[in-house]
Amino acid sequence: MMNPDKNDLSFHSGHRQRLRQKFLDNKLADYELLELVLSFVIPRRDVRPLAHGLIKHFGGIAPVLTAPFSELTNFPGIGHNTAIFIKAIHQIMLNGYKYELTERPIFHNEKVLTNYCLMLLSGKSKEEFHVFYLDAEKRLIADDLHSTGTNDWAAIYEREILRRALEVGAKSVVMLHNHPTPNTSFSTTDIEMTNRIINLLQPFDISVYDHYLVSGGIVYSARNMFLIK
Known about the structure:
alpha+beta, 16% strand, 9 helices, five-stranded mixed beta sheet, Cytidine Deaminase, domain 2, 5 strands
C-alpha cells in the first residue's frame, strides 16, 4: 500500500503541472492564476483553498495584488514572505506600466494609464494626491506623490505643482487622487481645485491634460465627464 503522503505529493505535483500547462495555453481562471503564483512561494501545501479565500475576501485578483501589506499578513495562511511575494508582483506590474508611460505618449494607449492609476491607488485607506508631469509629447517625466491625507481629504499645494512643473520642464500635467470610500465621483471641491490649477499653469504654457479619480475599482476622468475647462 502506498504511503498517503506520497499520494498527496504525487497529486499536488500533477495538479501543479496541469496548472502550468493551462497557463501556457492561456486557459487559467483568476483563482487558478493566483493558485499558480502561490504555489511557487508555498510549495508544500495545497493552496487552492487559500487562492479561493483571498479572491472571495478581497473581491478579485487585482484587489489581492493592491491590498495593503498589513491586510495580506492578517489573512489566515498568508505569512510575511508570501505577502512580500504578492506585493513584489504588484510592484513589477506598476513598473511595467510606468515604463510604457515614459516611452510613449499617454494617449497612445490610455488603458495603460488607467491600469497604472488602479494599480497605484486601489486599496489605499487614505487619500493620496499624485501629479504626473509630462513632456511636450505627453510622455511621463515624473510621477510625484504630492500629499497623503486622511480617509476623505488630502492637501493640495497649488504653487508647488507649478514650481515642480517648471523644474522638470513639463508641458502638461495629469492629476490623480483616490477616494477610499467606494464608488464616489469627483466632489465640487475637486473640480474647483482642478480649475484653479488650470488657471495657475496656463500663463506658463503648461496645460492640465486630465484629472483622474480612483474609487471602488473605477477610474473616473474629469475630462471625459466634461467637468473641467
